[in-house]
Design goal:
178 residues, mainly beta, Porin, seven-stranded antiparallel sheet
């Protein structure tokens, strides 16, 4: 397929969007120096792109558990584990060589993070912090395509998955003016 075969449909206007989200945070001390923290959210996003009648629905669900340790008023350590799940469903219409193809794409994504954060207040204005985190990411893409005008056409299906592992370390100094 060449560039000339793909007909670009005119861009009509900005895409209407709708998003809805909710979140819940629970923090509870269980000893003098220790604290449990749980945070969860649920987000939904709907996009209707006027160019080509493309519609996308996204659902995002992150859940975090943290265990905090406060040995004194200047120091705070936190060990956290986070799992974040995404799902995208996109329905697209594409015009190629005077033939309209309907494509359904599904994207599933799992992102797990284990992190250790350390904070130390040198003074009321100066904060030193360090973070070490490791991420495990799994993604799966699926594409289904159909040529609706031709009942003899076969459906096209493609699937792709990947797994990645990332680690990062971060040091930061923050100075507050006020």
């Amino acid at each position: 397929m060449t560039k000339d075969e793909i007909k670009q449909e005119p861009y009509k206007a900005a895409s209407p969007r709708f998003s809805l989200g909710t979140s819940f945070i629970y923090e509870r001390p269980f000893r003098l120096s220790w604290q449990h923290s749980v945070e969860t959210s649920l987000y939904y996003l709907y996009r209707n792109e006027r160019k080509g009648d493309n519609k996308t629905k996204t659902i995002n669900l992150p859940v975090t558990y943290g265990l905090g340790y406060y040995p004194n008023t200047r120091t705070h350590l936190q060990l956290s584990i986070k799992e974040q799940l995404y799902r995208d469903i996109a329905n697209r219409n594409t015009l190629i060589s005077d033939t309209r193809y309907k494509t359904k794409q599904e994207y599933r994504h799992s992102h797990s993070t284990l992190s250790l954060n350390a904070y130390y207040y040198v003074s009321p204005h100066l904060l030193l912090s360090a973070k070490a985190a490791t991420d495990l990411i799994f993604s799966k893409y699926e594409t289904k395509e159909k040529q609706p005008d031709d009942p003899r056409s076969d459906d096209y299906f493609a699937s792709n998955s990947y797994l990645s592992w990332n680690t990062n370390i971060e040091f930061k100094a923050t100075y507050k003016l006020f």
